[in-house]
């Protein structure tokens, strides 16, 4: 008689995976900045009202971390409020990404800056949406 040993499926460590996702998005955006600014020589300037501001690596890191943590917080809240958190969060995150593109499209100073800023938003958004969505309760 053959005995089967039950396998234990480890519950994924959501907190760790979400934290890694936020850090991965931040690293990806920062890498994009490095490739565009010091390597390719793009002058990365965004216009806010009547002021032009240089987009620094600190700004890229801080804004990506804040976006990632806000996405994480919203996902955690939705998981407590609804059984369809994954779907609702994905739709909201996609809409937030689309709205976030209005900033660089209207505020990038020059074609290269605009293209770079859009790319940074898309890279950070893609990593955050796919990574955080993967951790959502089903």
Beta-strand residue percentage: 5-15%
Identify the quaternary structure here.
single chain
The outline comes out as: elongated
Sheet having the most strands:
2 strands, antiparallel
Whole-number tally of structural domains: 1
Integer-rounded radius of gyration: 19 Å
Strand-and-helix sequence, N→C?
Answer: HEEHHHH
Task: Give the number of DSSP strands.
Answer: 2
Give the integer mean of the pLDDT values.
92
Structural class: mainly alpha
Low-confidence stretches: 6-10
Supply the number of helical segments. 5
Strand order, biggest sheet?
A: 1-2
Description:
- The chain is mainly α.
- It has one domain.
- The chain contains 5 helices and 2 strands; from the N terminus they run H-E-E-H-H-H-H.
- The protein has helices at residues 14-39, 57-81, 85-100, 102-107, 111-135, and strands at residues 45-48, 51-54.
- A two-stranded antiparallel ribbon has the order 1-2.
- The longest helix has 26 residues, at 14-39.
- The radius of gyration is 19 Å and the shape is elongated.
- The chain starts with 13 loop residues before the first helix and ends with a helix.
- The chain crosses the membrane at residues 20-46, 58-78, 87-106, 112-132.
């Amino acid at each position: 008689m053959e005995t089967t040993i039950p396998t234990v499926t480890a519950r994924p460590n959501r907190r760790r995976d979400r934290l890694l996702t936020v850090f991965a998005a931040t690293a990806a955006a920062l890498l994009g900045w490095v490739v565009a600014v010091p390597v390719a020589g793009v002058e990365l300037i965004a216009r806010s009202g009547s002021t032009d501001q240089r987009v620094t690596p600190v700004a890229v890191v801080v804004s990506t971390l804040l976006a990632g943590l806000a996405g994480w917080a919203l996902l955690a809240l939705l998981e407590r409020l609804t059984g369809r958190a994954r779907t609702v969060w994905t739709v909201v995150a996609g809409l937030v990404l689309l709205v976030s593109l209005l900033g660089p499209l209207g505020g990038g100073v020059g074609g290269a800056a605009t293209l770079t800023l859009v790319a940074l938003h898309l890279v950070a958004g893609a990593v955050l949406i796919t990574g955080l969505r993967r951790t959502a309760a089903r």
